[in-house]
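[job 0417] fold request received: Phosphoribosylglycinamide formyltransferase
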Amino acid sequence: MKRIVVLASGSGSNAENIYHFFSKGDFAKVVAVLSNKKSAKVLERADRLGIPAFYFNKTAFCSEEGAIKLIRALSPDLVVLAGFLWKIPEFFIKSFPNQIINIHPALLPKYGGKGMYGSNVHKAVKENQEVESGITIHYVNENYDEGAIIHQSKTTLLPADDVHEIAQKVHLLEYEHYPKVIEHVLKQQNGSQ
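[job 0417] inference complete; emitting structure tokens
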């Protein structure tokens, strides 16, 4: 069975969606959820779902002797970022080459980079009067939102859509596509990990 480790900083709705998608079969499962925020709702969700959950601070995350040791011990086939807001250190990326993916709430390369997350993205999309937005699922590299794109999905925006409505449309795409893309990426792996 393929093993997924989720890193999240917020409420964890995507993490829970991923958990439910894979709990229906025996192909893959979420083996742990890790968060950089002690008060993140994702930790409560994980606990409720019976998923081992861990908190780490910046020092532990940025140290080769810290959180990465735990993640290595979990032997993940894929590390999935689901609303995780810290930049991934280079040593971390080298430890899991082509095994870390992220979802971004816009059509990259537009509206990516440091500070471009959540409502910040949707506000920028609204201010620029975009006629569409969407999601980008991509591999993680050493730069924010610049890794190779795996999948993009679009949604049409109406002039009357406010930031909240844009966010809702994008969330629907996240819930529909992220688990399926994770499954696809796992199926593409050679199984030697």
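[job 0417] notes: The first strand starts at residue 2 and ends at 8. Residues 135 and 173 are 7 Å apart (CA to CA).
[job 0417] exit 0
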